[in-house]
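Need residues for this backbone.
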């Protein structure tokens, strides 16, 4: 779904701003700018906070997102073939994966 076709209180732009404002990796300036842009975006679209909250609570809730768990991935090559990444020494995994990336 594109940003333009998505409707409701959390359209594409609003979602992007919210995610940036709450991103722990964002710099303080990015957080401040995203938070300000988010509030301005919501103020343009809603007459007050109650209207926004009413629309937000009336939206159907999406199913929980399936998250790919890093440690559940299995190695497909090397000394630890068929072992889960969480069971492999991090130094080995990093070195081996880096070598594979640089070769290809």
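Answer:
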């Amino acid at each position: 779904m594109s940003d333009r076709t998505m409707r409701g209180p959390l359209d594409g732009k609003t979602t992007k701003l919210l995610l940036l404002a709450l991103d722990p990796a964002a710099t303080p300036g990015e957080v401040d700018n995203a938070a300000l842009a988010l509030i301005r975006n919501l103020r343009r679209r809603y007459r007050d906070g109650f209207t926004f909250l009413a629309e937000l609570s009336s939206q159907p809730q999406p199913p929980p997102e399936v998250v790919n768990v890093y440690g559940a991935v299995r190695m497909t090559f090397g000394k630890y073939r068929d072992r889960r990444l969480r069971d492999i020494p991090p130094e080995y995994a990093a070195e081996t994966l880096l070598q594979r990336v640089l070769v290809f």
